[in-house]
What we know:
The protein is an alpha+beta fold. The protein has helices at about 5-15, 135-140, 150-160, 170-180, 195-205, 210-225, 275-285, 300-305, 355, and strands at about 40-45, 55-60, 70-80, 80-85, 95-100, 110-115, 120, 185, 205-210, 230-235, 255-265, 270-275, 310, 315, 340-345, 345, 360-365. Strand 4 (about 80-85) and strand 5 form a beta hairpin. The chain is globular.
Amino acid sequence: MNFSIARRQLLQAGLISALPIPAFAQERKFEPVAGPWRTFELTTTVTVAEPKGVNKLWLPVPDLDTDWQKTLSNDWSGNATRASLANDPARGVRMVYAEFDAGVAAPTLTVTSKLQTRNRSVDLSRPGTVADVDAATLKQYLGPTELQPIDGVVRKTALEATKNAKTELEKVRALYEWVIANGHREPTTRGCGTGDIKTMLETGNLGGKCADLNALFVGLCRAVGIPARDVYGLRLAPSAFPYKELGANSANLKGAQHCRAEVYLKSHGWVAMDPADVLKVMRQETAEWIKDPKHPIAAPVHANLFGRWEGNWVGWNTAHDIRLPGSSAKGTLPFLMYPNGENASGAFDSLSPDTFKYVISAKEITA
């Protein structure tokens, strides 16, 4: 039962006095408002733990320049034989690519990015100012990816979830609510998940992390003709609001990778979304697994992650099905959000920073 309803019923029955509401049940504030820019210096250092033959590394860098993020610089250092800013040949996603010839002792690469970011918020009750977006770009964000088809069970689910929606905004709201009502945060999922939404829907297992849950939202939007995209990135700092799960320890960003979502509305342009973080708060913010998004702890994020983001996060890119330039691996990566590497022994485990081995940290520049 909802805590506030139960308490009101007991008060009316005279069974409890007007005691303070316990802290765990008090409604918190979460209301990011577009405002000043914040400047961060973000550093990733990789040291290959067991070099063998030629060692290769690929590190994502901020590749988005928008009204909520600006890239100021990307620099790198270390003992690489060759290192440069490179692009995925098909998607154009930027990354630092480094090679270390056989015999290089303790291959090490440090990438430092300076960037600015800020909160996002939009008033969906009135038309906004829409920047021009070319038709080819929007078409790109309407199509399928290897793990996000838009036909079959995905389209069937999207049509059912939006059957009572008339407008574009109503459809997006219906899909946001559907993911929150039917999905759940699964803490045991490795990394951020893979975003295999067809398998999720076919099996009925809608548990996962951000790359699963926001991918589900994005795929459902695309399936009903609404441009949408995942934005792959990294939390940089604690939240300015009282939510530990919506921030990170800047000094140690191990496991701080997080992807978000955007939808394109004709009336507002690209709009921030993050149903996955709603489900994260519901599952992990307190010892109690919150099942109702209207619970006092969940309600503020449920309301405001539809159209808002907090600027304590950096977006790397929005691409799927990545091919790493110079890699001997066959196939593609579903996304580029983690450091990647390989040598004569094969690909490194990107989701295991302690054995890969890499560390990530950030500091805010206020001067």
